[in-house]
Amino acid sequence: MTTERAAFVSSLAKFTQVSNDKLIKSKNVLVIQKIIELATLQGNYLGESWQFIIECVSKLEEMINLGSGQMKDRDFFESSSSRQQQKNDKASA
Length: 93
Known about the structure:
Low-confidence stretches: none
Distance between the termini: 55 Å
Number of strands: 0
Helix content: over 70%
Order of helices and strands: HHHHH
Strand content: under 5%
Structural class: mainly alpha
């Protein structure tokens, strides 16, 4: 039942709407809660389906960080020269 499990978990992850730029509604928050509950209670049986849950949680954390004004993950991994170039571009604009 690997295919069925993957289809179920991936469809749940799509209903969370965290990968879209749309406004998250209360029904999406409920789906996020259920997918985290699924991971907590049935985590040993998820196998390859963990990737969908991890992507969902990662996107959710990124949204929370953006909402609170924190840096994006990719900002931590950019080289200092590319950051300096971005600062120069902003200053000249």
